[in-house]
Amino acid sequence: MCHRHHYVANFNYYCDVFTQTVIISGMKKKKILLISANQFTIPYPVYPIGLSYISSYLKSRLPGYDIRIFDLVLNNIDELIEYLKDFNPDFIGVSLRNIDDVNIYNKESFINNYKNIIEKIKKNTKSKIIIGGSGFSIFPETLFEYLKPDFGIFGEGEESFYKLICSFDNNSDFRNIEGLVYVENNNIVLNKRTNYFKNPDFCFEENLIDYYWKYSGMLNIQSKRGCPYNCVYCTYPLIEGSKVRLLNTDKIIEALSDIYFKKGIDYIFFTDSVFNLNNDFNFELAEKIIKNKIKIKWGAYFSLHNLDEKLLILLKKAGLTHIEFGTDSLCNTTLKSYRKPFTVSDIIEKSELCNKLSIDFAHFLILGGYGETEDTLNETFENSKKINRTVFFPFIGMRIYPGTKLHEIAIKEKIISKNNNLLEPKYYISYKIDISTLKDKALKTGKRWVFPDEDMSKVMNKMRLKNKKGPLWEYLIK
């Protein structure tokens, strides 16, 4: 065993000994409060799956702790302050899901609201504050400097959070923890992440299930982490890494069985960056869903790459009803510029296959991104006429994020400066197009297009009150 692995093994051993000692001695439990800071609910509120994974992982390894989740979608900031005073946690984890609304027509930033939340926490508790989440993972150093927590964790949070708690319990060194952000000698330190988590625990939070089932019409779960693709704009490799990790199918089945048989919840959305990354795994998962008689409906994000009829037939038998394709464009030239691993022929072929199998599907596009021209736009709109029974959801331009290939391009083309931290939304829009013409061009196709400024939330809320479940965009074309 190498020195590093020996250290980790001893580290985990002493942490386990400590928590067992706490229970045996009858000492009062320490407390961890995990806060979901997201308050954005358009087009519907999204279950805080990241905190559920962390909570599940910590609860199985820190029995000496009282671990709870506080969701700012369900509660307001004043209720959080009262909860802090009553619960008085030793550690507080704050998850930042989104940085802004990714809507060029609105450009609503959430940063100042996060700042307000952190400041209110500081004023009303002496707890150690640890921030993380997908939003933080894209801007770890910048957000750490702006929000000034005690610690930050970028990327997967389960093991890093656990080890940080153990380091305090044992008064040991935390500086070896991967993904940790902290201050040393007045400098912000970001520990590189070289290992990725492969086997997380997961169970849904009892106090959140009913709300999200009623107002979202679905719960979320993950079956894979990481993304091997290199789309020019994408942050998934920054958040989860580029190496795909397949999660434990038995644990997924256990979680699905629990909500289906005990709560009657029968719609799930898989939040994998791309569901069809490993189809041997998908066959196994589908077969186990069928074998365990979990008659649940579900949807997921799919790529037009690595998708065939045999797979779709089995997935439909296992409950697949909705596919959201990360299509981006219906022009081969633009697809190449965006670094997509498929062609327009693939898009049309797989769309026809979904229609043949009666699987609802939507195409998510990016109009006016890197390499786009009026000619490529016209080709996209023209090709959209060839796809039946679908909805097109276009994003306008590309939100620029640090660490992406698009970031390099934007600096090179002097769209942004090197010093722009990009916390305020900045978009790459090809200078070769006129975005004011997009809606007219879409209208002339005769297809259903939903632009970012079309608010569907009121319609969806009415349908959910009628007990309609799932994404509901399929009703826009029926």
Features:
478 residues; alpha/beta; seven-stranded parallel sheet; 18 helices
Fold topology:
Elements lengths: L2 H23 L4 E7 L12 H13 L3 E7 L5 H11 L3 E5 L15 H14 L3 E5 L1 H5 L1 H8 L3 E3 L4 H12 L10 E5 L2 E4 L15 H10 L3 E3 L2 E2 L10 H5 L4 E2 L2 H15 L3 E4 L8 H13 L5 E6 L6 H9 L2 E9 L3 H7 L5 H14 L2 E8 L6 H11 L6 E6 L1 E2 L5 H8 L14 E2 L9 H7 L3 E2 L7 H9 L13
Helix pairs in contact: 1-7, 2-7, 3-4, 10-11, 11-12
What does the model show?
The protein has 478 residues and is of the alpha/beta class. The chain folds into two domains: 3-190, Rossmann fold; 217-477, TIM Barrel (Alpha-Beta Barrel), CATH 3.20.20.70. It is 41% helix and 17% strand. The chain is built from 18 helices and 18 strands. Strands 2-1-3-4-5-6-7 form a seven-stranded mixed sheet, sandwiched between helices. Strands 8-11-12-13-14-15-18 form a seven-stranded parallel sheet. A two-stranded antiparallel ribbon has the order 9-10. It starts with a helix and ends in a 13-residue tail after the last helix.
Concise summary:
The chain is built from 18 helices and 18 strands.
Number of domains: 2
Main pleated sheet = 7 strands, mixed
CATH topology of the largest domain: TIM Barrel
Radius of gyration over C-alpha positions, nearest whole angstrom: 23 Å
Top-tier CATH class of the largest domain:
Alpha Beta
General form: globular
Which spans of ≥5 residues are poorly predicted at pLDDT below 50? 1-25
Task: Give average pLDDT, whole number.
Answer: 92
Secondary structural class: alpha/beta
Helix content: 40-55%
State the total count of DSSP E strands: 18
Name given to the CATH architecture of the largest domain: Alpha-Beta Barrel
Distance between the termini: 61 Å
In the CATH hierarchy, what is the superfamily of the largest domain? Aldolase class I
Biggest sheet strand order reads 2-1-3-4-5-6-7
Question: What's the total helix number?
Answer: 18
Strand content: 15-25%
